[in-house]
Amino acid sequence: MAPRANWKGFLKVAELTCPVALYTAASTSERIAFHTLNRATGHRVQRQFIDTDTGKPVEREDQVKGYEVGSGEYIVLEPEEVAAAVPESDKTLAVEAFIPYDELDHIYFDKPYYLTPSDKLGQEAFALIRDGLKARNVAALAQTVLFRRVRTLLIRAEDSGLIATTLNFDYEVRSAKDAFSDVPDMKIKGEMLDLAKHIIETKHGTFDPSEYKDRYEAALTELVKAKLEGKPIPARKPAKSEKVVDLMQALRESAGLAKKPAATKRAKTEPARRKAS
Q1: Please, what's the b/e burial string for 204-224 (b: 16 or more CB within 10 A of its CB; e: otherwise)?
Q2: How high is the pLDDT of residue 98?
Q3: Residue 87's pLDDT is what?
Q4: Phi-psi region of 61 (alpha: psi -120 to 50; beta: other; left: phi over 0)
Q5: How would you class 108 by CB atoms within 10 Å of its CB: exposed for 0-12, middle for 13-18, buried for 19 or more?
Q6: Rounded Cα–Cα distance for residues 117 and 8 (Å)
Q7: Are 162 and 116 in contact (CB under 8 A)?
Q8: DSSP annotation string for the chain
Q9: Contact 145, 89 (CB under 8 A)
Q10: Which backbone phi and psi does 44 adopt, to 5 degrees?
Q11: 18 forms bridges with which residues in the sheet?
């Protein structure tokens, strides 16, 4: 069954336009999901909104948005007022600039989507944009209204299609300078740095996503399976306690250069000779 498009519109580069569809590239729908039950009856329970002062349930039609301006003080926003703030959408993914893909800091990356032509009439224009990006080795920056908000997307060519990644806004990305302000400015030199470089070189590899497993999801799957089959739940193995070691010694051990402890010599006991009678 073909996936359902999250969004349909038009990809526009200058005067060139083609109809496109946006599909979720990463999804959590395959994860194990739980429901909240009443332990006594086994029935599912429902959430209710409760007035914090009166303790009474508040019906849906009586619920409104509120922005807190002080302790217990709110500005009430009516549904039509909130709806009026949603930008109008013309369903156009308008390209504003082309940049080298590596020029953009990946910390701004939010969520990836697959971008494809939505009908046969747009396939040639789509292929032209895709191959143009490949030929110039660049990505496109574009904006559109996506899920009720104006979003900026980075679009790059991938195989026969395009990958569009929504980008975080500048105000959403926290300052790296603030995060690293307490990290001391230490310069590592000499043997310690050489050992670290050696370890990195020996551990060089490539990223294969199939090699990295979601251990939590796997454990939940085994737990559910055991409960269904009435099998005992395996006890978790205690975590190994890591001993504190000298940094230089740890580096040498990681690089396989640590001196091995000398083998303990065992005294060989020579069997007593019997005296000739």
Answers
A1: eeeeeeeeeeeeeeeeeeeee
A2: 96
A3: 84
A4: alpha
A5: middle
A6: 9
A7: yes
A8: -PPPPSEEEEEEETTEEEEEEEEESS--TTS-----B-TTT--B-----B-TTT--B--GGG--EEEEEETTEEEEE-HHHHHHHSPP---EEEEEEEE-GGGS-GGGEEEEEEEEESSGGGHHHHHHHHHHHHHHT-EEEEEEEETTEEEEEEEEEETTEEEEEEE--GGGSPPHHHHTTTS------HHHHHHHHHHHHHT-----GGG---HHHHHHHHHHHHHHHTPPPPPPPPPPPPPP--HHHHHHHHTT-SPPPPPPPPPPPPPPPPPP-
A9: yes
A10: -70, 150
A11: 11
Residues lower than pLDDT 50 in the chain: 264-277
Q: What is the pLDDT of residue 202?
A: 82
Sequence length of the chain is 277
Query: What structural domains does the chain harbor?
Result: 7-27+86-172 (2.40.290.10)
Q: Quick one: tokens of 247?
A: 């940094």
Q: Write the single-letter amino acid at 58.
A: V
Q: Are 197 and 254 in contact (CB under 8 A)?
A: no
From residue 100, how far is each of 33, 152, 260 by CA, in Å? 40, 16, 50
Single-letter residue type at 19: P
Q: What is the pLDDT of residues 126-147, one digit of tens each?
A: 999 999 999 999 999 999 999 8
Q: What is the pLDDT of residues 220-269, one digit of tens each?
A: 888 888 888 888 887 777 777 666 567 777 777 777 766 655 554 444 44
The two beta strands, 149-158 and 161-167, are antiparallel
Provide the token pair at 145. Answer: 């209204």
